[in-house]
Write a structure and sequence with these properties.
Elements (H helix, E strand, L loop, with lengths): L5 E4 L3 H13 L3 E7 L6 H5 L2 E6 L10 H11 L3 E3 L9 H9 L3 E2 L4 H7 L2 H11 L6 E2 L6 H11 L3 E5 L8 E4 L5 H16 L4 E5 L5 E9 L5 E13 L2 E7 L6 H17 L4 E9 L5 E7 L6 H8 L3 H9 L16 E8 L1 E2 L5 E2 L2 E2 L2 E3 L6 E5 L6 E2 L6 E9 L2 H14 L1 E3 L5 H9 L1 H4 L7 H6 L11 H22 L18 E8 L7 E9 L2 E6 L7 E9 L2 E6 L2 E11 L2 E6 L2 E7 H12 L3 E3 L4 E6 L6 E2 L4 E7 L2 E6 L4 E6 L6 E2 L4 E7 L1
Parallel strand pairs: 1-2, 1-4, 2-3, 4-5
Antiparallel strand pairs: 6-9, 7-8, 7-9, 10-11, 10-13, 11-12, 12-15, 13-14, 15-22, 16-17, 18-21, 19-23, 20-22, 24-25, 24-31, 25-26, 26-27, 27-28, 28-29, 29-30, 30-31, 32-39, 33-35, 33-38, 34-37, 35-36, 37-39
Helix pairs in contact: 4-5, 12-13
Protein name: Acetyl/propionyl/methylcrotonyl-CoA carboxylase subunit alpha
Pfam family, one: Biotin_lipoyl
Organism: Marinibaculum pumilum
């Protein structure tokens, strides 16, 4: 046995919080590490102790082996859990922990090193009799050898980086004419990403399923598997949806794949949790793809169908205890599906997004689980993987799990952060996914060459936003008033008056501004008409509002929505999982005029500064162009509202800025 009573978690985000929760439940003292950017992150608050290990960039913090080991020594940690990503599959880190007298909660450095190289791993698996995709994984790396081997293997084939993963250094080659370019680009990408340009070639298995087996091994001779996960729904070779069990799995196939996975782990004297990944062809043949020597992002689906805590098992094995489990005792119950919620902008080809989480509330209900790395107020920095949370649903059957997960996505409230939620909903709603037919070609076949595009808001959605913004502004005005009875709300002595909203939208396809007129009808009813439009009026009745939730009816049809008011003239709306950000152009113009007298120039919305055209000491006049902000797929000129002298410039070109962030200060002439 290896005794330790404290665990340092060498990671961040949702996986750090996940590990800390289990470790604390088992009675261990927990230590979090964090960069300067993560000082207020949820995993830091959750741990018993926390240590800052450096500046925001990962190489200076979460990838700095010496700083993490030093933090473990300083805090008296007895063990280190690497989570996934960062240093989780870094053999040098595992060795550094061992040399420092720290228990590494993972496999030995030799196993990490062997399986971290696709070429070496594949050679070892062939020796062990594990089915492998026909290909080339030799030492000779010159183009002539690779071209000859490609002809032997046949096209189409995959060019892959021998080191690393995540789709980097990977190319599909349809014919011999495309091989030279694929070799050149894959080698360059692999060298930049992993420090090694070594490549392997594999015959392309078209439209396969990506099926992985969760394995566990202890130091007492037990090696077993905990069933499989289907991770076929991928975008750019990155997993998006994972589920357990695989929809097309049979007991015979599970036994065969499980035996191969167990043999793969046994052949390298593996310890702890690992995942053996396979490609499963339409003909039922399966081939070894790679082995991940760590806990997987998608491990919760295995936990939900087996009832086991995989982190607890990792800690148990690292402490030298037996697993206490036999293969016969592993039973799969029901079905679980997980989706990864990312801070990314589907409208901008899924570019990672930054910002601050204005409000977060995960859905709750039977069979639901959320592993989150955020909370209300969390800043989303640009330095790390943009995954915010994992939403998981279990059901007694696959369809129940799918419906529950859809409901969870639609009921979860997330404001202030651009996310891929609507994209995930679209995936789960697809008939081919519902039927369990998705392969690795699913996203390309479903969304085509143009990829995913979010539909722009409809008049109905804009009208709902306008009514809720009208009421928020009305209530704010009432709060500032003296001796005004609420009975006078929505009443005017001159009769019913209309309030105009000219909405620009962010995060959807480019559309013209939506020009609306809102007219109170009394008793929480409103008529909304598009200014200049020929459509009849919509009637919206507000039944109830409670914080970020509202219940209303649109022309008699009930609608539950989530709403957030991030600032003057702005409203965010979320309904049935679709999110929209509306900005009232008229209110913004008025706010800009109000702020002009003080000479404080602020960002009108979240966006990127394309240009900053002034510097301290410059003389400006009202109307002078100060900066250009790109947001909502448009460029917005920021103009001086007064004559004066630029005192301070607080942002540079290229910076991402938040709404209302101070950019420039001008002293009036």
């Amino acid at each position: 046995m290896t005794a330790f009573d404290s665990i340092l978690v060498a990671n961040r985000g949702e996986i750090a919080s996940r590990v800390i929760r289990t470790a604390r439940a088992l009675g261990y003292r927990t230590i979090a590490v964090h960069s300067e950017a993560d000082a207020g992150a949820p995993h830091v608050a959750l741990a018993d102790h926390a240590v800052c290990i450096g500046p925001p960039p990962a190489p200076q913090s979460y990838l700095a082996i010496d700083r993490i080991v030093a933090a473990a020594r300083e805090t008296g940690a007895g063990a280190v859990h690497p989570g996934y990503g960062f240093l989780a599959e870094n053999a040098a880190f595992a060795r550094a922990c061992a040399e420092a007298g720290l228990v590494f909660i993972g496999p030995g450095a030799d196993a990490i090193e062997l399986m971290g190289n696709k070429a070496a791993a594949k050679r070892r698996m062939i020796e062990a009799g594990v089915p492998c995709v026909p290909g080339y994984q030799g030492a000779a790396q010159d183009d002539a050898t690779l071209a000859a081997e490609a002809e032997r293997i046949g096209f189409p084939l995959m060019v892959k980086a021998a080191a690393g993963g995540g789709g980097r250094g990977m190319r599909l080659v349809e014919d011999a004419g495309g091989l030279a370019n694929a070799l050149r680009s894959a080698r360059s990408e692999a060298q930049n990403a992993f420090g090694s340009g070594e490549l392997i070639l594999e015959k392309a298995i078209l439209r396969p399923r990506h099926v992985e087996l969760q394995v566990f091994a202890d130091a007492h001779g037990t090696v077993l598997h905990l069933g499989e996960r289907d991770c076929s729904v991928q975008r750019r070779h990155q997993k998006v949806v994972e589920e357990a069990p695989c929809p097309v799995m049979t007991p015979e196939l599970r036994n065969a794949m499980g035996a191969a996975a167990v043999e793969a782990a046994r052949s390298i004297d593996y310890r702890g949790a690992g995942t053996v990944e396979f490609l499963l062809g339409e003909d039922g043949a399966f081939y070894f793809l790679e082995m991940n020597t760590r806990l997987q992002v998608e491990h919760p689906v295995t936990e939900m169908v087996t009832g086991l805590d995989l982190v607890a098992l990792q800690i148990r094995v690292a402490a030298g205890e037996p697993l206490g489990l036999t293969q016969e005792q592993v039973a799969l119950r029901g079905h679980a599906i997980e989706v990864r919620l990312y801070a990314e902008d589907p409208a901008q080809d899924f570019l990672p997004a930054t910002g601050r989480v204005a409000f977060w509330q995960a859905a709750e209900g039977d069979g639901l689980r959320t592993d989150a790395g955020i909370e209300t107020g969390t800043d989303i920095p640009p330095y790390y993987d943009p995954m915010l949370a994992k939403l998981i649903a279990w059901g007694p059957d696959r369809e129940t799990a799918r419906r529950r997960l859809l409901r969870s996505l639609k009921d979860t409230i997330l404001f202030g952060a651009t996310s891929n939620r609507a994209f995930l909903i679209r995936i789960l709603e697809q008939g081919s996914f519902a039927r369990g037919e998705a392969t690795t070609a699913f996203i390309a076949e479903t969304f085509g060459d143009e990829g995913y595009r979010e539909a722009p808001p409809t008049l109905r959605e804009a009208a709902i936003a306008a009514v809720l913004q009208f009421r928020a502004e009305r209530d704010a005005a009432l709060a500032r008033s003296l001796a005004v009875t609420p009975a006078l709300l929505d009443w005017a002595s001159g009769g019913s008056l209309s309030t105009r909203y000219v909405y620009e939208t962010e995060g959807a396809a480019e559309v013209d501004p939506i020009d609306l007129l809102v007219r109170p009808l009394g008793r929480d009813g409103y008529a909304i008409r598009q200014d200049g439009g020929a459509d009849a009026e919509l009637r919206i009745d507000v039944a109830a509002t409670d914080g970020h939730r509202a219940r209303l009816s649109v022309d008699g049809d009930r609608q539950d929505v989530n709403v957030h008011h991030p600032g003057p003239g702005r409203v965010e709306l979320s309904l049935e999982g679709r999110s929209f950000r509306f900005r009232n152009r008229l209110a913004f113009a008025a706010a800009a005029a109000d702020a002009a007298g003080g000479g404080r120039v602020t960002a009108p919305m979240h966006g990127a500064l394309i240009e900053v055209l002034v510097k301290p000491g410059d003389q400006v006049s009202a109307g002078t162009r100060l900066a250009v902000l790109e947001a909502m797929k448009m460029q917005h000129e920021i103009l001086a509202q007064i004559d004066g002298t630029v005192q301070e410039v607080l942002a540079a070109a290229g910076a991402q800025v938040a709404a209302d962030e101070l950019l420039i200060e001008i002293e009036a002439a």
